[in-house]
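User: Design a sequence. Structure:
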């Protein structure tokens, strides 16, 4: 019996945030939900908090 692999649902990438060079850390987190059509995109600054329920 073949093993079924689940589809990858989230893609998480850390990107530079060129719009704010004054902070010590200028990274952003880009999260893409690839189970939606078109894929849903969320970009979060590293000083924000976010929850997945």
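Assistant: Done.
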């Amino acid at each position: 019996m073949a093993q079924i692999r689940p589809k990858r649902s989230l893609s998480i990438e850390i990107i530079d945030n060129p719009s704010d060079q004054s902070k010590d850390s200028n990274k952003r987190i880009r999260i893409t939900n690839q189970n939606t059509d078109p894929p849903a995109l969320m970009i979060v600054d590293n000083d924000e908090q976010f929850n997945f329920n």
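Strands lie at 10-16, 27-33, 40-45. The mean pLDDT is 71.
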